[in-house]
Amino acid sequence: MRVFVTGASGWIGVATVPHLLAAGHHVAGLARSDRSAAALRAAGVEPVAGGLADLDVLDREARASDAVLHLGFHHDFGDMAGAARLERQAVETMLAALEGTGRGFALAAGVAGLTPGRLATEEDRSPHEGPDAPRGGSENLALSWAGRGVRTVSLRFAPTVHGTGDHGFTAALVGIARERGVSAHVGDGSHRWAAVHVSDAGRLAARALTAAPAGTAWHAVAEEGVATRRIAEAIGQRLGLPVASISEEDAAEHFGWLARFFGQDLAASSTLTRERLGWEPTGPTLLADLAADAYVS
Ligand SMILES: NC(=O)c1ccc[n+]([C@@H]2O[C@H](COP(=O)([O-])OP(=O)(O)OC[C@H]3O[C@@H](n4cnc5c(N)ncnc54)[C@H](OP(=O)(O)O)[C@@H]3O)[C@@H](O)[C@H]2O)c1
User: Fold this and answer.
1) How far apart are CA 153 and CA 85, in angstroms?
2) What is the pLDDT of residue 76?
3) Atom in ligand 1 nearest the alpha carbon of residue 159
4) Contact 34/63 with Cβ under 8 angstroms?
5) CATH of the domain spanning 160-196+223-269+277-291
6) Residue nearest to atom 39 of ligand 1 (CA)
């Protein structure tokens, strides 16, 4: 198959591409810079020049491919509305290009915010609906296209897809702890974060793209919920910093944009993903990565 991947040069994309290549697929990847194009070429991926706003490129590449894996996302936490608009347009364009073909379209989503206060499962529907919702409501939009002849699949990643080289939420927490000289959690730290090692996330993305039925959501979750207090303690221990509790009122001042995630319970199950896709995570746990050299060397 020819597989078109957006975000192939990103954290999860880099971990997914080898699985697609090993399965014998030709992988073409969107590259918005010469640097990304060179990285893709070195990884055995055909670079396609363009960005997520280049809808003509997305349309052309989706039409020319047997499956599309959409992992690209403009992570601008200062302009989430702009990132959401870009995401929705890009997803709409690629879905329209695939309409009626029966081809696969897998997109990245998250377990964050799915079921506040309750363990999220694959059968929970995202509450994010419409263009003004987080991520432009792209998950529900995509899943709704299962009825229009596209084998749409949602890949819901844990809030921390961790490992050496991560620049996501856990890396941000480590950075904040260093900067502040204290490793903090919000309240009593009983809020939990689901977690998955990047190697397991990449393997699941490749498998779901080719094997999952239309209109389904899957959880890249190895650990259902690690207490945020234990995350803060592990960071404090590794950095030699004290651990402290920050009140909910002070969380935004301390954690900035990350407060709205670190102060929430983001736990999720992957029982159905394991049973139905035969996926079994094998990578290190989040606390093992924090205790080793993944974030501090
Ligand atoms: N990592 C996590 O912990 C996590 C958790 C939950 C959900 N997710 C979701 O999973 C997906 C992949 O995440 P990730 O961690 O791999 O993200 P990442 O490391 O930030 O990579 C983002 C990718 O998107 C590309 N990109 C960004 N803006 C673009 C634009 N305007 N035009 C074209 N390409 C653009 C980047 O290209 P360059 O290489 O050129 O920068 C890169 O390949 C995202 O949707 C993310 O929100 C991730």
Assistant:
1) 20
2) 86
3) 5
4) no
5) 3.90.25
6) 9
CA of 188 to the centre of ligand 1 (A): 31
Token output for 234: 């592990």
Distance separating alpha carbons of residues 262 and 253, to the nearest angstrom = 13
Residues of the chain predicted below pLDDT 50: none
pLDDT at residue 35 in the model: 98
The verdict on the CB of residue 168 being under 6 Å from ligand 1 is: yes
Q: Which two tokens stand for residue 189?
A: 């730290």
Is the CB of residue 110 below 6 angstroms from any atom belonging to ligand 1? yes
Dist CA 251 CA 171 (whole Å):
17
Cβ of 90 less than 6 Å from ligand 1: no
Residue 34 alpha carbon to ligand 1 centre in Å: 17
Q: What is the pLDDT of residue 117?
A: 84
Cα(245) to centroid(ligand 1), Å: 31
Residue that the structure tokens 């893709």 belong to: 40
Q: Helix H segments across 43-184?
A: 55-63, 80-98, 138-144, 169-180
Please indicate whether residue 16, judged by its CB atom, sits closer than 6 Å to ligand 1.
no
pLDDT of residue 177: 98
Q: What is the CB neighbour count within 10 angstroms for residue 58?
A: 28
**Residue 72 in contact with ligand 1 by CB distance below 6 A:** yes
Under 8 Å between Cβ of 196 and 220: yes
Is ligand 1 within 6 A of the CB of residue 284? no
Cβ(138) to ligand 1 under 6 A?
A: no
Residue 118: predicted pLDDT: 93
Extents of the domains making up the chain: 2-157+197-220, 160-196+223-269+277-291
* Rounded CA separation 290/297 (Å): 10
* 246 CB within 6 A, ligand 1: no
Which fold is adopted by the domain 2-157+197-220?
Rossmann fold (3.40.50)
| pLDDT at res. 78 | 83
Q: How far apart are CA 202 and CA 83, in angstroms?
A: 23
